[in-house]
Specification:
alpha/beta, elongated, 4-stranded mixed sheet, 3-stranded antiparallel sheet, 22% strand
Length: 314
């Protein structure tokens, strides 16, 4: 028997009802006090009432085909100008689970004029992690190509990634190094340290932990092959070295850091070679990754193409 469960959060009680998915026959109802004062807020009561309605009626997790949840309290509080913590819970597995995750990435939802319900998903640029280790090695006067010397530095490194005003910031031992890691010499240092097994092991658990705890868009040169081999959607994003060099030179110029195009192109080609020929986790397209080439299109067109590609494969 397949079951549908509905949950409603009220001002005093949180209610759950279970019905037969095929006949709509009532299976059972339960009620628990709404958990306004719990650390997790009303979410604690939602979890409690869900467990209770399943336990009391012998419903197994695999029997549940649909869960609906609504709360007038949180919406009303938001519309009235109060601060309300609102969470979205999605469930599923396989393609349906992936679609559930996608459907919750809604950004800010306008409930009324000037009143928005914020929603967040997380993007992680894993290359920034390698750049941070490369920066640390350069500052310490260590050759980024020296595997043993770089490995000795790792215990003194603490990395943190935070989203501030919609922009990813990378912290190295408490210092915001988001700008410093974008220097050309640090990019080359990142390529060098990324070839060391100790560095990749140091970062692997961190990267996988981020993906396990939340919906995530992860960018890096070995994400689809090593870090997240079971990712819902894998894209091998590429462009010619010449196109990337022009974009990078333009980016640097806009930041007040003009660079010679020929030098930028040579650096990109060298890094591509290093990354694709390293012994550990080399840069390559995963067998099940979708190839997306943006050599001849602009930023917005590239974004639209990636979005269409993702939506077509979840």
């Amino acid at each position: 028997m397949k079951v549908r469960i509905g949950i409603d959060v009220g001002g005093t009680f949180t209610d759950a009802v279970a019905i037969n998915n095929d006949t709509y026959e009532l299976i059972g109802t339960v009620k628990v006090p709404t958990t306004h004062t719990a650390k997790e807020g009303v979410a604690a009561g939602i979890v409690e009432v869900l467990h209770k309605v399943m336990e009391e009626n012998g419903i197994r997790p695999e029997d549940v085909t649909f869960i609906a949840h609504g709360t007038t309290q949180a919406t009303n509080a938001l519309l009235e100008g109060d601060v309300a913590n609102v969470g979205i819970v999605t469930m599923g597995s396989g393609l349906q689970g992936a679609k559930s995750r996608s459907d919750t990435a809604m950004g800010s939802i306008e409930l009324a004029a000037g009143k928005f319900l914020p929603s967040e998903n997380v993007y992680v640029d894993t290359g920034a992690m390698y750049r941070s280790i490369g920066l640390y090695a350069v500052r310490a006067g260590v050759d980024p190509h020296d595997a043993d010397a770089v490995a000795a530095l790792l215990p003194g490194i603490k990395l943190d990634i935070r989203l501030l005003d919609g922009t990813q910031h990378v912290y190295l031992n408490g210092e915001d190094v988001s700008t410093a890691i974008r220097a050309e010499n640090i990019g080359m240092a990142a390529s060098a340290v990324a070839a060391h097994p100790a560095v990749r092991t140091f970062l692997l658990d961190t990267q996988r932990g981020l993906a396990e705890s939340q919906n995530i868009l992860m960018d890096g040169r070995d994400i689809g092959t090593v870090v997240l081999p079971n990712a819902t959607v894998k894209i091998f994003l590429t462009a010619t070295a010449e196109a990337r060099a022009e974009r990078r030179a333009k980016e640097l110029a806009e930041k007040g850091q003009p660079a010679d195009l020929a030098t930028v192109l040579a650096d990109i080609r060298q890094r591509d070679y290093q990354d694709s020929h390293r012994a550990v986790a080399p840069l390559k397209q995963a067998e099940d990754a979708i190839l997306v080439d943006t050599s001849d299109i602009g930023l917005q067109e590239s974004f639209d193409l990636l979005k269409r590609t993702i939506l077509a494969h979840i």
